[in-house]
Amino acid sequence: MKSENVVGPVLQEEFQTPDCPGPTCKSKICIFMVVRGLLPTLSPPSYGASNTFGPEMWYQRPLSPPKPTEAAAHPAAMEPIPLRSLTLPTSVSVDLSFVGETLRTSLVGDLLLMNPGASFYGESYVELNIIEVSPELSLQLKFQTSKPQGLLFLAAGKNDYCIIELLSGNLWVRVNLGAGEQVLRSEQRLRMDDLVWHLVELYYVKNNLSLVIDKQYETTGQITGGIHNLHFQHGIYIAGHGGLDVPYLDGELPNFRGCMEDVVFNQREILASLRTYPGFKKVYEVSLGCNDEFFAGEDEAINFFSSRSYVTFPEWRVQGEGLLEFALQTGTQQALLLFQSGREGDFAALEIVNGLLKARVGKGKSNTQLSSVSLISDNKWHVIQLKFTGRYLDLMVDEQGVRTLLPLQSKPFVSEGPLFVGGLDKHKGEEVKKLELASVSRKSARGISFKGCLRGLETNSEKRALKNALASKDVAAGCKLQSSDNENLFITTTENLLRSEVPLSTTVPEAGKPFLHHASSYFLSLNNLEVQEGGRVLLEQRHMNVDVASEDLGIYPSQILFKIEEMPLHGFLRKDVSPAQRMEEAFTMLDLGQGKVWYVHDGSEEPRDFFTFSVSSKNKKEMPLYLQGHVPYVFNITVLPVNDPPVLKLPEGNLLLLFENSKKRLTPNIIHVSDPDTDSLSLSFSVLGNFNSDAGFLENTNGPGKAINGFTHGDLRDGNIFYVHRGHRNSRILLRASDGELVSNTVVLRVVAVPWDFEVAVRTGVVVQQGGTVLITQSNLSVEVNGEPHEMETRYALTHPPQFGQIQRQGSRDEWKQVSTFSQRSIDRGRVRYHSTFQELQLENVTDHFKFKVNIEGKISEELTFPITVHWLKFILLKNVPLEVRKIDRQVLNSDHLQAVTEGVDVTQRELHFKLLTPPKKGKLLVGNKVLKTNSVFSQQNIADSKISYEAQERPREDTQDTFRFLIVAKHIESKDYTFRINFEADKTCIVVTNRGLFVKEGEGKLITKSELFAQTLDNQTFQYRITKSPQHGTLKLVNFSDPLGSRDNITAFTDQDIVGERLMYVHDDSETQHDEFLLVASATGPGQKGVVRHLDTEHLSTEIKVAISVELKNDEKPVRVVDKVFHVVRNGQRLLTPADLCYHDPDSDFDDGQLLYTRRGIPNGDLVRATDLSQKLYQFRQEDLREGRVLFRHRGADSARFVLFVTDGVHYTSSLLEVSVSDPYVQIANNTGLVVQRGEDSSLTTTNLSVTTNQDVRTDHEIEFYMLQPPKHGRLLVNHSVSHSFSQHDLKQGHVIYRHDGGGNSDVFNLTVKVKEIYVDVGIYVRIYSESHQHRTQILLIKTLVVEEGKPVKLSSGRLQAVHEDNIPSEAVFTVRIPPMHGYLRKSLPEEGSLSADAKSPLIFTQQDIDDGDILYVQTAPDQQQDHFLLEVVNGFQAVNGIEILVDIVPKRIPLEVQNFTVREGGSKALLEDYLKIPNKYFEGVDCEFVLLKPPKHGYVENSNFPRVKLMKFTRKQVIILS
User: Fold this and answer.
1) What are residue 164's DSSP bridge partners?
2) Strands of the 998-1001 sheet, one edge to the other
């Protein structure tokens, strides 16, 4: 929008009519301004629109352009539009030439009275220092912003608070009035960060909380706990909390950034004035009006027009690598351009030094610098790029780059914190000035900002514009470079009001244009005045100039009067006349020209000042409106900071009193230093001269006992500085402060030491609950010296510790330890406490105490007593009501049954526990699903939450009782024990089962009586027993001893009477089993007595019973020989007789075969002797002796003979013959299966693959040896993991012999020689090699059902059965018939003949190749069959696939017909349905056939329903289906 006109052209440009196309239309009144008071009946529209003016200011646009008089006479003919919807340009002037004089005057006045709102820049806030106490709350505020987070409003008290904030674009209200926090929030869909005006209203009346947004959306809540008053002791805050430290504030919550207006809290307009009133109101960095920078576009440049300008953006994320790009235009020779802090004190900065760009990266004063080659301060645009690349730092200006290597030993730069552009805020400035950057003064970080324009800012290729800013100061959207830093536009009335505190530097318009339309648009030009802090400066015509043709008006410079409407806040105006006049209220243009008007600054630290004035004429002629003094103007003054020296004061006087030989802390109340332009942490103190060290010295607590000559303000503030007295009573200290550049005045602090004595002034004692703790504070125990508090070291020594507790002190790691001494300082810091440790019940109200002595600087008091009152814990069992149990289901034990409370000590239900001493016997006590056992613990809270339950183990047969014992525990204190009772009420319909199981001897029977098995109820129901699972090793039978023919075996049911009458018997089947069982269901069948009505609940009363049977085995089996072979021995030699030659087994399962006893008779050709004693002949031995190698046979005599052996288990005897064969020594191969090895893998060679037999006397497996004759070609033989050419039978049995294949060949072989004593035999071991794929099973890809006509053959082709393997050819897939077909057979045809061979009938083996060649046929033989099947197995050489079932469908020669009888009423008829005449074969589905009656019915006939009474002798299948 153009900046030539203010209201008139703006409105013309935005609200044109057909009759008034634009600003060139001057002949008609295009806009009619209606000011406040002219149309009082108009009401504003609803809120929510984008407005910038106050709600009371309106203008009306005529529907057709009327004359001014007509418009005033006919207000109803105009369309109202709020002036609030107009946004004024940055610099405007008022052209009111098209309205009358009176209306122009009213319009200007109302423009001044408008409320344009206020701008908050991210660090701005308004603080109202009031104490608000009220029973009600009302708040209205309007705001617009694009930021999703920010604090809008805070009413702060110690505990009470009201917070309105933006979180993620939604409005949140948090209110706490003492009854807990209540939260209200806007609807999630309602975004408030859309840069549109929103009205927020919050009301609290009679505990009801209401939030209304834009007059449309309402949310309500209620504050519980009675009527609450608001207590806001800390004041009211708008847009930020100003550093207020209260626990309910989130430190991460940013200040608001945007515009606000109409903030009314409890009928108090907060933003009515933006002036600061010390002690009452603080306005920080807030300006009038809604700043254009909030609406700036993404590509719009940023104008930095002040020496304190800056913008903060979100962090420039750098982790070793990063890129920053922008363009700038400036004439500044020295300024800080950007600053990004990093972790561990790292930083990255870009500054202008002597017109060159300089980049610095590092930590503290140790950093890497990189400077540009070309100048940039030439008022031209330059493109800048700063880049971190691995170990390099690159800086490029207009495609001219420089690079430097970052230190190798340094860590990569990692960013942390916001990115500052153009300058720094106050806090960051104090940090950065310690880095000694060239653009930042060590004295002050203010006035270091960049002046100029910046655009196209990108961090890591991400655009950054003003809409992304976190905070800003003294910047504008869009800019043009100017020739001087001090030049301003002509600032008109409206702009002065909107931006009274932030002057803008923009292009100077064309000069010489008067204010009125006839005399052009401008008459007054203003330029900022600059003055040094505390100085004075001359106000000249170049600062204030009225540009009019005075000759035409007939006035002189002495007649143009500047009247001061509002004096400066931080200085005064003075005329340079004699005597000097201060606070002059007016001066003329001539005074300015003669250099008589001065501005004098008062030395305060405020960065700017201003005054308002009006312009008028002393000439008595009629003057234009702008020279009549009706319009006020604002003149801005910029204050240039000056470093002031610190000021040192002694607020409490120059006398420091302390006690002899003690020390006293120096605080800011004793020594006070002020330096408004220096951070307090940068100030230091020095001690001048050599003060009397014999009297005392200054010390720092960080180095106790050492005299110091200086200290910092931080040490003084933290209480680390003490004066230590050691000698003379009188001395003095000379002190001076410094800010690093200037020093303060010198002060003298006189020190006087006085004698002292002490007494225990406070000894109140403490009160504590048993098991608890209580702090001993200064209000409980303290000492006064000379009747006053003191700072001398005071120590308390216990002479008699407490009886029922401990005195404890908190250590540096926050742990509490028992002590016998402690200091007053520990008491003051809350580090001393009494801990009640007595954990038993105390029946009497006894007190505790401890005795102590006080020691101060060597002075010790008499023994004193400190009383301690203990509130002893008492248990009260309020309720112990028995639990009534009627069913076996769980019963909840709640507070109505068991409830305990405490007296004397506050114990919550969660901390009050019950300890189980003895659990219940007839049931289980549970917490949740966990069973409680002895010493288990549960709480009163568990009981209150119904988590404790009791579950009976079985249904009670009679009314009975169960109990458990417990005690109450709290704070490690236990009560006496109590008993809780559970009363059972028996359920008369409950089934009571007697099931004690059976005990029977092997092969015998056992009567089942009522004491072993029975079901009953208390109301004597009768039961029927149905056996659901019969015993496996016996039978159940009903016997009738009086009538044996009436007995029944293998029964499936019996009754109560069968058990009572002792007719039920179990008979064991004499098997060697020790256990048996059977299952049955017992069901109630009716009442036990006649006349008793059966209860409805018992109609389906039943239960399952499992009866266990224990069998006592009998020794009733004879031993059986399991090894029956010829015993071979060397002629005239000997050999052990082992179980491998002779072995028996006793079938009785409970008998140990090792105990079988052998008795031999005479041996014709030798003897049996003890192996360990050859002289002792054996006539009896046990099988265990054979197993242990104790029986030796010695040959003597014939080569062949037999002898008799008797074997007994102690009861039964049996006999057999042992044949002995004698020959020369030999060794024979008993087993040689060869090996199967996967290619490249190992395989064990064991006795299952290779074993030998011999008739020689071999005692151990080591005596059978194997030697390699010919090693394998494609592998190695390993014994115990190493290559070996020999091994023993023992190695084979233990699996120590391994064949390892080397990956070559498809088979292998190696030859061995077996040696037993002196006998040898050779053996070859064949090795089959298979690949990994051979382990995969053969895949059956296709199995289809065979279809064959009855009596005919069909081929089993590859289309019906196909088995494949990835490494096998079809001829290697071998099928074996496991189950042949039942109604036919398989046969193989001879290919050369093409006919069936009789010898090939029913082949048991064939291959896939046979199937593929069509040589395998199934021949159907059995008539009248519909299906057949056979089962195959296929093997690929290594893996087998079992259970391949081939189904055969047989198509019969004759139609299979199934008929079904049907019933017809006498004289009636019935349709013949398909179910009556069914052909159950899928191969005849859909085939039409004809039914012929061979023999018609005798008592009826068959007819067609379409032709009744016509007898049929045949009909079709379709006719039957239609009838169905």
Assistant:
1) 153, 173
2) 998-1001, 1102-1112, 1075-1087, 1021-1029, 1053-1055
User: Average pLDDT of the chain?
Assistant: 81
Tokens of 287: 């300006």
3-state secondary structure 189-202: CCCCCCCCCEEEEE
Reading the block at residue 39, the tokens are: 């149309």
Alpha-helical regions (H) of 1319-1456 = 1408-1412
Host H or E run for residue 497: helix 493-498
CA distance 828 to 94: 69
And the tokens for 1424?
């009248």
When pLDDT is averaged across residues 132-149 and rounded to a whole number, the result is 90
| 1374 confidence band (pLDDT: 50, 70, 90) | confident
Write the DSSP string, 787-823.
TB---S-EEEEEEE--SSEEEEEE-TTS-EEE-SEEE
Pairwise CA distance, residues 830 & 810, whole Å: 9
pLDDT of residue 1046: 61
Q: Label the pairing between strands 973-984 and 883-885.
A: parallel
Q: Report the run of H or E that residue 570 belongs to, with start and end.
A: none
DSSP β-bridge partners for residue 384: 326, 397
Instruction: Determine contact, residues 537/640, Cβ cutoff 8 Å.
Output: no
* pLDDT value for 88: 36
What does the pLDDT read at residue 71? 35
C-alpha to C-alpha distance for 1016 and 1007, rounded to whole angstroms? 19
Distance, CA of 113 to CA of 1281 (rounded, Å) = 105
Percent of the chain with pLDDT over 90: 35
pLDDT digits (tens, 9 = 90+) for 28-75: 333 333 333 333 333 333 333 333 333 333 333 333 333 333 333 333
SS (H, E, C) 20-86: ECCCCCCCCCCCECCCCCCCCCCCCCCCCCCCCCCCCCEEEEECCCCCHHHHHHCHHHEEEEEHHHC
d(CA 1336, CA 1439): 7
Instruction: Please give the average per-residue pLDDT across 1073-1101, as a whole number.
Output: 68
pLDDT band at 368 (very low <50, low <70, confident <90, very high): confident
Cα–Cα distance for residue pair 671/652, rounded to 1 Å: 8
**Amino acid identity of 1354?**
V
Are the beta carbons of 363 and 345 closer than 8 angstroms?
yes
For 148, phi and psi rounded to 5 degrees?
-80, -15
Q: How far apart are CA 1315 and CA 1334, in angstroms?
A: 37
Provide the token pair at 1017. Answer: 């109820």
Beta bridge partners of 1079: 1029, 1106
Residue pair 861/758 in contact (Cβ under 8 Å)? The answer is yes
- Residue 136 pLDDT more than 50? yes
The count of C-alpha atoms lying within 13 angstroms of the C-alpha of 911, restricted to the half-sphere facing its C-beta, is: 11
Q: Using the 8-state DSSP alphabet, how is residue 445 labeled? A: S
Helical segments of 99-168, H only:
101-113
Please give the model's pTM, rounded to 2 decimal places: 0.39
E strands, 888-1029, are: 891-892, 898-903, 913-918, 923-927, 930-931, 937-939, 948-952, 960-970, 973-984, 992-995, 998-1001, 1005-1007, 1013-1016, 1021-1029
Tokens of 762: 């406070």
The pair of three-digit structure tokens given for residue 673, joined into one six-digit string = 């230093």
pLDDT at 216 over 50: yes
Distance CA 791, CA 189 (A): 61
Per-residue tokens: 931: 């069973």
Residue range 1397-1425, pLDDT digits in tens: 434 455 678 888 888 888 899 999 998 88
| DSSP strands (E only) in 1070-1147 | 1075-1087, 1102-1112, 1120-1124, 1127-1130, 1134-1136, 1142-1145
Task: Please say if the pLDDT value at position 1116 is more than 80.
Answer: no
**Burial level of 941, CB count in 10 A (0-12/13-18/19+)?**
middle
Over residues 1108-1117, mean pLDDT: 85
